[in-house]
Design brief:
Blueprint (H helix, E strand, L loop, with lengths): L5 E7 L8 H19 L1 E7 L22 H11 L3 E7 L7 H8 L9 E8 L5 H11 L5 E10 H4 E2 L2 E2 L3 H28 L2 E2 L6 E4 L5 H19 L5 H4 L2 H10 L1 E7 L2 E11 L2 E9 L8 H11 L7 E7 L3 H9 L3 E3 L7 E7 L10
Parallel strand pairs: 1-2, 1-3, 3-4, 4-5, 12-13
Antiparallel strand pairs: 6-7, 8-9, 9-10, 10-11, 11-12, 13-15, 14-15
Helix pairs in contact: 1-6, 7-9
């Protein structure tokens, strides 16, 4: 499971003046905040009444992503940044509030492959019919409704406008959060794949790595550079010894591309500009997928990212890493003479060359 933090939007759905929703939301956030900290989840409360969303007033279909209204763009950014949702909703006439339906209808792509849990409140049915109504709608938007729900019967759960203390109810809220975080992490590859460029393998995708990816990068490095250490008869290879914080630091300053499939980091390559040179390094592919052209594909991806005015690509590898050297030679690189006998081979390739189109 991914270790990345999860951002959860807690949506108070009623817009009626004097509604009970804020009190229910206050109870929920208070009950689950300690558990959220343990899970690395960020809770972001928001009330639909504060958004000032009129009834849907966009000319284009939400799937187009073409939003003319500022309130739509603002709502889009809020939802897009979230990894999951908890809707705190009443029941009106066997259904969900019109404000919730309207807020859902405004957007499309922003909802996809994210879980949504429900905390309902009401009288006879404790708001459960509102949840059943909402589930029919959210699945069309590719939201994933949870099995876990929390339902409050107002007569039993509320006194003087506040939710009564109840340990079992608190535990139900925590259970909802636990399931939401697990499902959100499981769906993360689906969200990333839908927003990224396709990779060279079926079902794979490529995206830029960030400091949040440091755990996966650390594992990949230690997996891939053991063989290099054996071949070159040295353990003095930075990739084998870098701490998690050191990996986070260089991910923040290098342009690093990762190849993913089903939440697994299959390979990576990093690059950055040094003067007029484009330095490429840390080219790695998981051992079980070598020999399928992934390293060559990653190398060409890094080359294509070079700035327009760079005139040379420079990379380094161990002097005894003959497989790496053969790959680079086959891609048009040549060894650069060096006065240092440090067990490192320096290779270069100068622009322009076939296979890479320089931006103009």
């Amino acid at each position: 499971m991914s270790t990345k933090p999860v951002r959860i939007l807690v949506i108070m759905c009623s817009t009626r003046p004097g509604a009970l929703g804020p009190a229910v939301g206050e109870w929920l956030i208070e009950a689950i905040t300690p558990r959220a900290a343990e899970l690395g989840a960020e809770l972001v409360p928001i009330a639909l009444s504060d958004l000032d969303l009129p009834f849907l007033d966009e000319e284009e279909h939400p799937s187009s992503g073409m939003y003319r209204q500022e309130h739509t763009r603002r709502w889009s950014a809020i939802v897009d940044a979230a990894d999951g949702f908890i809707a705190v909703t009443p029941e009106y006439n066997y259904g969900m509030p019109a404000a919730l339906k309207n807020a859902l209808d405004y957007l499309s792509r922003e909802w996809a492959w994210k879980p949504i849990g429900f905390v309902s409140y009401g009288h006879t049915s404790a708001g459960t019919r509102s949840v059943q109504h909402a589930k029919q709608v959210v699945t069309t938007l590719r939201l994933v409704p949870l099995g876990a729900t929390v339902a409050l019967r107002i007569g039993d759960a509320v006194h003087d406008g506040r939710v009564r203390p109840d340990a079992l109810r608190d535990q139900a809220g925590i259970g909802l959060l636990d399931e939401l975080v697990r499902v959100s992490q499981a769906l993360r590859p689906m969200r990333e794949a839908a927003r990224s460029e396709a990779g060279p393998l079926p079902g794979s995708y490529v995206r830029q790595l960030t400091s949040d990816d440091a755990p996966e990068v650390t594992v990949l490095q230690r997996c891939c550079w053991v063989e290099e250490a054996v071949v070159n008869e040295t353990m003095a290879i930075p990739a084998l010894h870098e701490s998690l914080e050191e990996v986070r630091d260089w991910l923040a300053s290098w342009h690093t591309i990762g190849l993913w499939r089903d939440g697994r980091l299959l390979g990576m390559v990093r690059a950055r500009r040094v003067g007029a040179d484009w330095h490429v390094g840390r080219l790695a592919v998981v051992p079980d997928l070598r020999g399928r052209g992934l390293g060559r594909w990653l190398l060409r991806t890094a080359e294509a990212a070079a700035p327009p005015d760079c005139r040379r690509i420079l990379l380094f590898t161990g002097a005894k890493s003959l497989r790496n050297i053969d790959l680079y030679h086959s891609e048009g690189y040549r060894s650069v003479p060096s006065a240092d006998d440090d067990g490192i081979v320096r290779l270069e390739r100068r622009f322009p060359f076939a296979g890479v189109s320089k931006p103009v």
